[in-house]
Write a structure and sequence with these properties.
single chain; 284 residues; alpha+beta; 4 helices; globular
Length: 284
């Protein structure tokens, strides 16, 4: 009986220690992103001399534009996701084509609080700062049996379906269409999470699984973790961003559409009307 009581006491002590350690649980995860692109030119572009070779160059440019590195700093309930800064590269250009990604700034900060189910996203568009504050959307993940290793971590598969709006448009100087074409489609998102890092955080807006999300694929974009540092020597201090005009997610999307339209109109008004330049704008 004494041995049984002693075993219970030891087990209780272990659980208490685990809970205490969870409160101080910290880490930094590095992620790399890539985008699968298959941009198709319409008949107008083809008539202006955009051949198959130029389309391939464009797809290569787009893929390179979305190859980036991010750091996710996390604790038990909070996280900060930020793009790693690097030397500014020239605007991708090939054969008179230019690429611009709206809402894709190195200065952007994405703070998530999974305990309070809210987020704050500090963004900059055309030199103006916005602070998008809203609730984290509930995620209806389906936990699968399939497993794999990412680095040294055993990961489990999870999937969910969602409807997304894709924005991909070609704008010509004499174009009559003033807004980008959008298409809605239902996609399956596949995530790989590891219970070995017991936080329900993840890259970008992904969260809500019983372990850190190390990889996500939505059919076009892939985000994969390349490195994790657990409980670094320097204690992590996550500060919620506060700069910028505060708006909701819906309001920010409306502003993005408006700014994109203004940019297109301003571009057409610059006198660039030689019919040889194509600008591609993709909502970030």
């Amino acid at each position: 009986m004494k041995n049984y009581t002693k075993s219970i006491i030891i087990l209780v002590c272990m659980l208490v220690n685990a809970l205490v350690n969870a409160q101080d649980f910290q880490g930094v995860a590095t992620y790399k992103t890539s985008m699968k692109m298959d941009f198709k030119m319409d008949s107008v572009a083809i008539n202006q001399g955009v051949d198959k070779e130029m389309q391939e160059k464009l797809n290569a440019m787009l893929q390179k534009q979305f190859q980036k590195e991010y750091k996710l700093t996390f604790t038990a309930s909070e996280s900060m996701y930020k793009q790693e800064e690097k030397l500014a590269a020239p605007t991708p250009n090939a054969g008179g084509m230019q690429i611009m990604v709206m809402g894709d700034s190195e200065s952007a900060l994405l703070y998530k609080n999974t305990k309070e189910k809210r987020y704050a996203n500090e963004q900059e568009i055309l030199g103006k700062k916005f602070l998008v504050k809203d609730k984290l959307k509930e995620t209806d993940w389906k936990l699968e049996k399939e497993t794999k290793f990412i680095g040294q971590y055993q990961c489990f598969k999870a999937t969910r379906t969602t409807e997304v709006e894709r924005i991909e448009s070609v704008s010509f100087n004499d174009s009559k269409s003033e807004k980008p074409e959008t298409t809605k489609e239902t996609i399956t998102i596949t995530a790989w999470y590891t219970p070995e890092v017991p936080v329900n955080a993840g890259p970008a807006m992904y969260w809500g699984l019983p372990g850190l999300i190390l990889e996500v694929n939505d059919g076009s974009q892939t985000i994969v973790c390349s490195k994790i540092v657990m409980n670094p020597k320097d204690k992590i201090a996550i500060k919620e961003p506060t700069k910028g005009k505060e708006v909701t997610e819906a309001k920010f999307e409306e502003i993005m559409r408006k700014k994109s339209k203004e940019m297109m109109e301003r571009y057409r008004g610059n006198g660039r009307d030689d019919g040889n330049e194509i600008r591609i704008e993709i909502g970030g």
